[in-house]
Amino acid sequence: MAGACWLLSAACGTSLWISDYNAAPSAVLPSHSMATPFGSLIAGVAMDRWGRRPVAIFGAGLFVIGWWVLAAAQNHATVIAGALINGYCKGHLMTVVMVLTVEFSDPSTRGTLVALVGVAFAVGCGLAGGLGLYLDRRIVSGLASLLPLVSLAAWFFLPESAVWLARKHRMIEARRTLRWVCGTGRENQAQVEHEDLMRRRRQDEEEDFRNSAGTSRPVLKKWRMLTSPTLHRPFFIGLILNVAQAVCGAYSLVPRFANCAKREDEFLVELLRVPALLAAALCLRRVGRRYLSVTSGLCSCACALTLGVLHYVQLNNNRPIPAQTNVIVTLFLALLYVESNSWGFSILSLLIPCELLPGKVRATLCGVIFAVHDIFVCIIYSIRCRICDVFGTYGMLWILAIASVLCTIFVYIFLPETKDRSCGEIQDHFRQRSDLRMAKKPHSQNIELNNEERSCEFV
Questions:
Q1: How many Cα atoms within 13 Å fall on the side-chain side of residue 214?
Q2: Which of 108, 118, 40 is nearest to 338 (CA)?
């Protein structure tokens, strides 16, 4: 399951390469970017309605078609059509990958697996961009189609998510999926997980019944459900974290301030993110999400603030810094900014929404959050040069520093520590607490689970 998700993530990374096409360059990138939020929204709704597996199969198959359209393109219109398909599939499949990774992973390895999804995305983007510099675009498109094609073949042999099956009262199939995940010789553990799924399904049904009591209007029932503590609190935490990441993410800094104006340099930046993502994957086994986010935010703030001061001094000092020294220091700080952002906020913006949201609406609300993130990335990417013209380079850098520290404060105050907690325990936390202030752990008391019981926790 993890391998299929990593293949899809790498395929999503390769889709960014199409913005480097020589054909219709002014229309390809906007077409790709505009289609991505629609993919996230539609995939989220479809997963909660028809299941995770069929949506993954559809997205992978459509991705293959998109690459073949680009490989066979003879005019600008066909290239734009392929860009629209691949942009849609990028948002579609990244939502699918994140939801499935969280639902099929053990609490102790969930953060690591999500970080490896980010590694696969960065590697796919960097390799596709590198191949595009030396090979014909048709060859690169054909090679890129192999990743979703292999993943498509794998999905025909993988099971449906037990979380979704339990929500649809298909308990026999859910038990079969749990046995497949837990492996042979661990049927008792699969039975324990199956009973936990049933218990949480009954809790959700009772909560929905209380929300719908006293009204027969479907709109009012939906409103009460969406405003329940188990939904609106984790939703807004994930939404604000993704918006903040879109503002202070690496894309808003590096191409403008680190002399990376060429597109091929941006693909190199993606590869440079890999060490930080791998370090985060290792550290998430031992440290909590809050610690990772605080160190990431503070380091990003320090780098952006120092870069701003450096540019300000360079512009206003009668004795400017030597050119060679200025370039070396600027590149070093810009690279450190990228690494520190990738180390924490980049991973947590993907992980936290899927962890915090309950299984009954996880896919739909994650699709909304990721779509909003993609929209803000497009906006920031399109107006960053204009902001620099208005506020100056140092002003934009200081804005990034302020955004980083505000995001760090928000995470420290409102984000509960989810390390080694099942998604069900996190949901219970939001159900029981009346506020989010100083929410450092999902429970005030210690919860003791032995390693055997944690080995394949789902909901």
A1: 3
A2: 118
Residue 153 class from Cβ within 10 Å (0-12 exposed, 13-18 middle, 19+ buried)? Answer: exposed
Q: Which residues, 6 or more positions from 43, have their beta carbon under 8 angstroms from its beta carbon?
A: 55, 59, 91, 92, 93, 95, 96, 363, 367
Q: How distant is the alpha carbon of residue 288 from its chain centre?
A: 18
Rounded CA separation 73/198 (Å): 51
273: which residues sit within 8 A by CB, 6+ positions away?
A: 118, 122, 250, 338, 339, 342, 346
In this structure, the number of other CB atoms found within 10 A of the CB of residue 158 comes to 20
C-beta separation of 280 from 410 below 8 A: no
User: For residues 252 and 260, what is the distance between their CA atoms, to the nearest angstrom?
Assistant: 12
Residue 421, classified by CB atoms within 10 Å of its CB into exposed (0-12), middle (13-18) or buried (19+), is: buried
Percent helix, strand and coil across the chain, each to the nearest 5: 80, 0, 20
pLDDT of residue 18: 63
CA distances 263 to 84, 166, 259, Å, are 20, 46, 11
In the predicted model, what is the mean pLDDT of the chain?
Answer: 79
CA contacts within 13 A on the Cβ side of 248: 36
In angstroms, the CA 3 to CA 349 distance is 21
| Confidence class for position 449, pLDDT limits 50, 70, 90 | very low
